[in-house]
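Pasting as-is:
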Amino acid sequence: MGDRPLLMFVPTPELLRRQALRADEIEEVSSLLLEHADPGVGSGADRAEVAGIVALACLGDDHLWQDLQLASRVELGVLLRRWFPALAAKNTGDMKWKKFFYKQLCERAEIHACRAPSCAVCSDHAACFGPEE
């Protein structure tokens, strides 16, 4: 895509520090995203760049849309449905995106760390679902 960045994202010093410490985690999230990427959107390098940026932003302390320096969660949803539609479609309960990605990784590794048998009865339900204001 030339010299224009795919996302207007500038990692904070803290994210860069975490990137050095948690490279394996970034790789796992990035791989998850790329497994669900739309092959018709951008080049392979573009898809890898967007996946890497999203994965890095997952290390931030705020909601993913905030860590990606986007205007809203709606904007994040548009981005994810464009680049990673198969994964975005799996988030049928509108779970917060970071939690959703990590839940997908746990399910893929057959790790079931929820304290309740299902999300609907989990005491942390409000932390995972609902508004992000």
